[in-house]
Write a structure and sequence with these properties.
4-stranded antiparallel beta sheet, single chain, alpha+beta
């Protein structure tokens, strides 16, 4: 039997083999496994809060690079440079995200990942030149910049960029049996554990223990 909790539009479902959220993310960790991994953490933070934090960071893999790319396009930088910088940041953010997770940064990440903010910046930026009063600075977007912006926005927001990145990462990187969702949740638990003084061990040892627990729950689920 599943245990479902709602917070606004976000939902968490507890299943025997892990957690599933309304953002479509699956975590192979149970409440009991989490408690044994970082003892006492669930007394400081609710399970819903910790998983929602992980969900927000996962969501930022697409949302944050989109925002950065839009700002680059709206800047005075040349089109090609904006495209190169935007693509570089996209790759950097997706590959290095787990190392950048900190509790103090979560409120900003959650705000940045709001669809209302992204669509607002997207629409306002495109419409600015046509509605700005005389004397105001103009963005002066060229047709190429507008086409690049709209195309990139759609490719990233529809998940096509993520699918392509996942394919290339799977094909050319070393095999990693730990899903990105589990790696992100792992770092959330570690960062919050250190913040509350509940962890004092070696980071690498903690990561290895998380992988062991995740694989254990995968095995139990199959059985």
């Amino acid at each position: 039997m599943s245990d479902q909790r709602k917070k606004g539009r976000w939902e968490l479902v507890e299943l025997p083999g892990g957690f599933r959220t309304s953002f479509g993310n699956w975590y192979t960790m149970t409440r009991e496994g989490l408690e044994s991994y970082v003892p006492g953490l669930l007394k400081r933070y609710s399970l819903e809060h910790l998983v929602r934090v992980a969900d927000d960071w996962l969501r930022s893999r697409e949302q944050f690079p989109v925002l950065v790319f839009m700002l680059l396009v709206y800047s005075p930088l040349p089109e090609l440079l904006s495209l190169v910088l935007g693509l570089s940041f996209y790759v950097f953010w997706r590959t290095q995200l787990s190392a950048l997770i900190y509790p103090w940064a979560h409120p900003a990440i959650r705000w940045i990942c709001e669809d209302a903010l992204l669509y607002g910046v997207f629409i306002v930026g495109l419409a600015y030149d046509s509605v700005a009063p005389v004397g105001w600075g103009q963005l002066g977007l060229s047709s190429l910049e507008i086409t690049t912006l709209v195309g990139s926005f759609l490719i990233i927001k529809t998940g096509l960029a993520a699918m392509a990145f996942h394919f290339l990462h799977t094909r050319f990187s070393k095999k990693d049996t730990t899903a990105i969702s589990d790696r992100i949740l792992n770092m959330v638990l570690i960062r919050y554990g250190y913040k509350e003084g509940l962890l004092t061990g070696n980071l690498k040892a903690m990561q290895d223990e998380f992988i062991r627990l995740a694989n254990y729950h995968k095995t139990r689920k199959k059985n």
